[in-house]
Amino acid sequence: MMTRQQSDEKLVAKNLATGRVDIERLEQFLNETVSEMAASTNLKPEEALEILENVHVEMVGELREAVETVGNVKNMKLVDTEKLSQEIEKAIAAISNATDLDTDEITTIFSKNPGASLADISYKLHEKSKLDRIDW
Length: 136
Fold this sequence. Notes:
The protein is mainly α. 73% of the residues lie in helices and 0% in strands. It is built from 6 helices and no strands.
């Protein structure tokens, strides 16, 4: 028969494993979302990610100015900023649906972690989502 401590340890291990799986799924989802955004705007995925890191949700209307601050984006004049704006909104909405975070929380996580990997961003989004659910 399992002791209470053993049962608690088993539950903690199960929750940690579930959390890792959730984070891996979120990372895969983010990768697909950023890749779709990049493909539809003729950007490289790393450029699309850098734009997400540098464009806060309130800046989408002023996208050209915001994107010009992004160092990796070459030939910004060739980028359709209206399409890019739509894709950013679409990506953030998809992430919001996946995490139950609002758009401000999502863009804050991206903008506070410039240069972070999708794995790091996925972890931070997952943790914020988990905290919000606890508070709720």
